[in-house]
Each structure stands twice: as structure tokens, then as C-alpha cells.
Amino acid sequence: MKDYVIKTLNKGIAELCLNRPERYNAFDQPRIEALADLLTKLAKDPNVKVIIIRGSGKAFCAGGDLEWVKNHPDGYSSAFHSMAMKYHQAVLEIKNMSKPVIAAINGVAAGGGFSLAMACDFRIMAQNTSLKQGYTSAGLSIDGGGSFTLPRLVGMAKALEIMAFDVPISSKQALDWGLVTKVVEDNKVLPEAREMAGVLMARSSSSFKLSKRLFNKTFNSSFEEQIEEERRFLAESANHRDAIEGLAAFVEKRKPSFSEV
Questions:
Q1: Pairing status of strand 13-18 against strand 5-10
Q2: Mind listing the pLDDT tens digit for each residue in 48-69?
Q3: For the whole prediction, is pTM greater than 0.85?
Q4: Which of 100, 168, 237, 243 is deepest in the core (most CB within 10 A)?
């Protein structure tokens, strides 16, 4: 099996290319294990500040390889139960890591690929591609954190519509509904993702880390609990050199120069 994930690292930006174009970058058990294990390592790598995930060929990711599921010796249920464990590790690493993760949706994102993209912090989408939740058209329930992220991105009513009817979502609809951050011409997805990564590189990683943690807590906390967490995190962030630099730059009316870690 050739490498499913090709990693390149350039000045703190790690690019992960899902590399199975003949199967629209679909993953089976070994391949999703490779992605999950790499994301776990990158989350702790001090040399990585931003991560971009993209697909090779014509697709971003078609999700789980149903041929692999069909041929699993222990049946469908066992296949999905096993594959979902590592798939969930991958999306949890994305949601919980302190670093920004950008999905460069260069082609169709469906099923597990759809949920993988939705788990990322930002999504750049090609103008002439589409998104498709996919699960319910195969008689399955939504997976990969999709039942969590989708209602929070588009609201419960629209999430139920996407779940029930599972029609392809155009780039215009995805942008209008808040599913993606930006839509660009097809050949500009990766350059746009790299440009966004460069902007994030120049901003405070400490501020992003703590703010992302706050956002992840907000739907499971009362207002009183959330603002107490804000107070604690604000005091913590004020001790970081980024805050010292940022406040000094504001007073001195200059652009701040944040640290790389």
C-alpha cells in the first residue's frame, strides 16, 4: 500500500495530501490509521503551527471505502465499528489541537470526507465542486462528528434538511449556509489555503489556542461557567509574551511581531 498521506513541511505549515486519487481518496482501516496517527504527532510537533489538509486528483475525500467494508470478514457492523475508532481519533485531534487546521476542498467531499472537512477550523472550497453528506443515502447514520458540527455550523433546521434529503451542496450554497469560509476558482484552492495559513502564522498562536478551547466549550457550558472560563483564560493569555507584545504594539501604534510558538 502506497502512502495514503503525503506530508510536506514548509516554514511551520504542514500540508497533508490524501493520496489515493483512483478511489477519490477514500480511506479504509489502515489508511485512516495513518491519518489519525500523523495528526496526533503534528498536534504535539513544536515545528508545526498551521495544518492544511487536501486531496490528490479530482476529490478532497470520498470518505470510507465501501468496497473494504463490503469485504470485511466480520461483516458491515464490525467493519464500521473498527474503522470509526481511528476516524474519530483523527477528527478529535483536529477539533482539540491548539493549531489552526484548514481544509482545502479541491474536489468533492462526501461521507467521511464531508465530516472531515467540517471538523476543520477553516474551509476553502473550489467553485465547481460540491459537498455531500452521503451517509443517509447509504442507509447509515451520520458519523465523524457530523451530527455535532453540522447543526452548529448551519442550525438545526438546515442540518436536518441536509441529513434527510442528502442532495449535493454547491459551493454557492455552502458559502451562503456557512459551511465553508471561502469559495475560489478551482485552481486557486491550494494557493488560497497557503495564503490563509501564512496570515495565521503571523498572528498569535497563544491567542488562537485559548480562544479555540473556549469555543469548543461554549455549547456545553452555562453562561456563568463560560464567562468564568473566559476570565481564567484571559488572565492566562495576559502572561504570554504574545499578549505583552500585542499590548505594547497597540500602545505604540505599530504592527505586533508575535512569537512562533
A1: antiparallel
A2: 999 999 999 999 999 999 999 9
A3: yes
A4: 100
